[in-house]
Design brief:
CATH architecture: 3-Layer(aba) Sandwich
Strand order of the largest sheet: 3-4-5-10
Number of strands: 13
Strand content: 15-25%
Number of helices: 10
Order of helices and strands: HEEHEHHEHEEHEEEHEEHEEHH
Number of domains: 1
Distance between the termini: 26 Å
Radius of gyration: 19 Å
Structural class: alpha/beta
Largest sheet: 4 strands, parallel
Bound molecules: nicotinamide-adenine-dinucleotide, galactose-uridine-5'-diphosphate
């Protein structure tokens, strides 16, 4: 996002406490190491800069961990965002974009999922974001803070430059784990659940490239800058691919055998999560460039091959 904003000629300040992220992933602009829930730091940031729009990505993101330790998620994802919004209100900053998630839908009644479908999250991670969507609606009505919630489906892939990519510790996402097997950093990929009601028994997901997510943020920011009230949009490619299909694509892209093992279901996983992204397409004029998941895997492979130890900034 920072790279794209700088390319478009914007000034950017990034706040990250580096609890999970990497300074080296921020390719320019101003970097402030600090916590989202620190009111005195927020006061200093908002009172000394003219900020048009806040894009809020900071969160803990592991569904399984959120089930084990829900308060960690409610405090960091929900509670600290209230500090951010309070500080924005005090300083008259009135445009906000939230990284929301398909996890707000829980186990959907029908697919592809439309934004108006019931939101019944099945884990605290999803609930921590659902709460924020409701808070943002209240803030719009009460304080005039206009906002857009972007419900990403499965974020994947890496920047085409090969300079920025995924480096989570621990890694829980399918594509980077499969590629770590290709790099022989892991012995095999565990397929979590082979008895789902899907064509090959494994879960279907809608993989969306990180560059396309970034493009949606640029469009959402433009919409808010034009005076729009904002909205809630799914971001996905409207196609589901199974775990087995993704592993097969990774074999093709890498030319490696990638051993697999069938494992039990992972708690909290929905069988099928596929977006209808018609609203983003029509209202934001968003059109994802990477609709072939093989290309998404290929960009991730370029990053993982060039950076087998990720950003390597924790050593
Ligand atoms: N990865 C996905 O598939 C996916 C899907 C849907 C939504 N999202 C959302 O997108 C956003 C980014 O996800 P990601 O995959 O890049 O995760 P990430 O862990 O790579 O990035 C989150 C960043 O937030 C920072 N952070 C966390 N808590 C903070 C705090 N209290 N103060 C300051 N910084 C803090 C971390 O250090 C990290 O750099 C998250 O809000 C996530 O919920 C991700
Ligand atoms: O080692 C693994 C890892 C994953 N999977 C499977 O692969 C699929 C995709 O799993 P990911 O962990 O890559 O992604 P999720 O669909 O669980 O979750 C992602 O999308 C969600 C919304 O759909 C949330 O936003 C969440 O933060 C984000 O990580 C799931 O069926 C999962 O069970 C495996 O079989 N083996």
């Amino acid at each position: 996002m920072v790279k794209a904003l700088l390319d478009e000629g914007h000034s950017v300040a990034t706040l990250d406490n580096l609890s999970k992220g990497h300074h080296k992933a921020v390719l320019g602009g101003e970097f402030i190491q600090g916590d989202l829930g620190d009111p005195s730091l927020l006061k200093q940031i908002f009172s000394t800069r003219k900020i048009d729009c806040v894009m809020h990505f900071a969160a803990f993101i592991e569904v399984g961990e959120s089930v084990q330790d829900p308060l960690k998620y409610y405090v960091n994802n929900s509670g600290k965002t209230l500090e951010l919004l309070s500080s924005m209100k005090k300083h008259g900053v009135d445009k906000f974009i939230l990284s929301s998630t398909a996890a707000v839908y829980g186990e959907p009644e029908k697919t592809p999922i439309e934004e108006c479908q019931p939101q019944i999250p099945v884990n605290p991670y999803g609930r921590s974001k659902q709460f924020l969507e409701a808070v943002l609606q209240d803030c719009r009505e009460a304080y005039g803070i206009r906002s857009t919630c972007l419900r990403y489906f499965n974020a994947a892939g890496a920047d085409a430059s090969g300079l920025i990519g995924e480096d989570h510790n621990p890694e829980s996402h399918l594509i980077p784990i499969v590629l770590q097997v290709a790099l022989e950093q892991r012995k095999k990929i565990s397929i979590f659940g082979t008895d789902y009601p899907t064509p090959d028994g494994t879960c279907l997901r809608d993989y969306v490239h990180v560059t396309d997510l970034v493009q949606a943020h640029l469009l959402a920011a433009e919409q808010l800058m034009d005076g729009d009230q904002g909205g809630i949009y799914n971001l996905g490619c409207q196609q589901g691919f199974s775990v087995r299909q993704i592993i097969e694509m990774a074999r093709k892209v890498t030319g490696k055998s990638i051993p697999e093992i069938e494992s039990p279901r992972r708690p909290g996983d929905a069988a099928v999560l596929v977006a209808s992204s018609q609203m983003a397409r029509s209202e934001l004029c968003w059109s994802p460039k990477y609709e072939d998941p093989e290309e998404i895997v290929a960009t991730a492979w370029k990053w993982h091959q060039a950076h087998p130890n990720g950003y390597d900034d924790k050593v």
